[in-house]
Each structure stands twice: as C-alpha cells, then as structure tokens.
Amino acid sequence: MKNILSFGLLVLTLTGCLQNEQPITVFLAGDSTVADKPYRDGNPEKGWGQVFPLYFMEGVRVENHAVNGRSTKSFIDEGRWQDLLNEVRAGDYVFIEFGHNDSKIESEKRYAAAEGAYSDNLRRFVSDVRDREGIPVLLTPIVRRRFDEQGVFYDTHEGYPDAVRKVAAELDVVLIDLHKSTWQMLVDFGPEASKKLFLHIDTTEYGNLKQALADDTHLSPYGAFKVADLVAADLKKSIPKLAGFLKK
Q1: Domain contains 8
Q2: Strand, helix or coil at 65?
Q3: Is residue 115 part of a domain?
Q4: CB neighbours (10 Å) of residue 57?
Q5: Which site among 19, 63, 70, 144 is 20 to 30 Å from 49 CA-CA?
Q6: In angstroms, rounded to a whole number, what is the distance separating the alpha carbons of residues 46 and 68?
Q7: Structural domain of residue 70, as residue ranges?
C-alpha cells in the first residue's frame, strides 16, 4: 500500500509539472511591416510577424500584437501596449519594431520625434517589460524600397534607426538591426528583383484587385518570409537560447 501511495504521489507530481510547463512566448509589437493580415480573397499583403510562428518548434509560441498604421505613440495611446504587457510572464520575449509611422509629422496621433518621444517610448517599453521579468528586444525598422535614377538605393527613415540603436546601447538591450540587414538585402536584389519583396502585384495575379499595386512599403508573402529569415538568422547570434527552438 505504501508503494502504491508513493507511486500515486509521483504521478500527480509529474502531471502537475507538465501542466505547469508553459511555452515561451514571443510577443510582437509593431506596425504593418510586422502585423498579421487577412487571408481573404488571397490578400497579397503579409507582415513578417505573420509567418514568424512557422519558424519555431514546440516550446515557443508567437503572439502578434502589431497593427497596421501604428507608431510607438498610437500603440500606447490606444491601450495596445498595456494589453500586450498584461500577458507577459517572466522569461517571455517582447520584440518591438516601430518607425514607419512615428515619422509622420502631419499625423498628430502618430508623430513621435526620433530623438524625443520615439526614444522615450522605446525606453518605456524596455522598462515595462523588464518590470515583468520579460526580455525586451529592440528592432530597427525595415527599409522602404527606394532607388534613384541610377539604380542606387537610398533610405527614408532619417534618424529613427539610429535612435533605436542608441536606446539599445544605453539600456543594454538586445538589438536586431533589421534596417541594416534589409538595406543590404535590397542592394543585393537590385531595383528590379527587389519588387518581389514588396507589393508590386499585377491584376492577373489576384483577380479581386481593381488595379495593379506598386507599394514599396508593405511586404509580399515572399518579402515577409525573407525578412523573417533575417530575424531568425540574427537570433542565432543575439539570442542563442531562443534560437535553439528554431526548426532545422
């Protein structure tokens, strides 16, 4: 009887441990370049965060809170940051990529100066995550597709990528420099081939399109996977523990 009781206690203990084991969660905060997009009617637009869950084995789940059109300011003001933060547990990761909309000075709801509110908001994000014993990860914004008449790439993000780099160095935060890596990717692809990364879509490809698309900000499905490839490659250097869960 004693052995049976001991065995029963062991089973209950092991069962409890298994039930209490929770996967690591990677939270994503960001804008349209990260966000999940509808699949209806074969919608061609995708964010890299939408395909990112496919890169992980069991033990990691990705929860994407990114939304089109948001800046650090509007993400906070709309309560989206607090909603994300409420779910963060010790050991979870929070990836943060903004910048495309913070620079829109004409938009009072979104504008956040690179060396002002934008940097302050990033500092707040880092502090809030650390208060929850989570692990913040800052990402510079991906580039827009821009080439001059000579086929030379040029950037449009001004001081925003450097602001992220400065805050990451100041607060000793893991930095994934997507601005740098996507810049190099577009240079490698060149003016014509790089169209595949973005929404250069003919109406013959998607029957529901009323007119052809020529969008150099938002990612195509191919572009989303290529950017997610860059994030995954950086994890192997910057967060080897999390990279250990990447599919081979």
Answers
A1: no
A2: coil
A3: yes
A4: 10
A5: 19
A6: 11
A7: 24-243
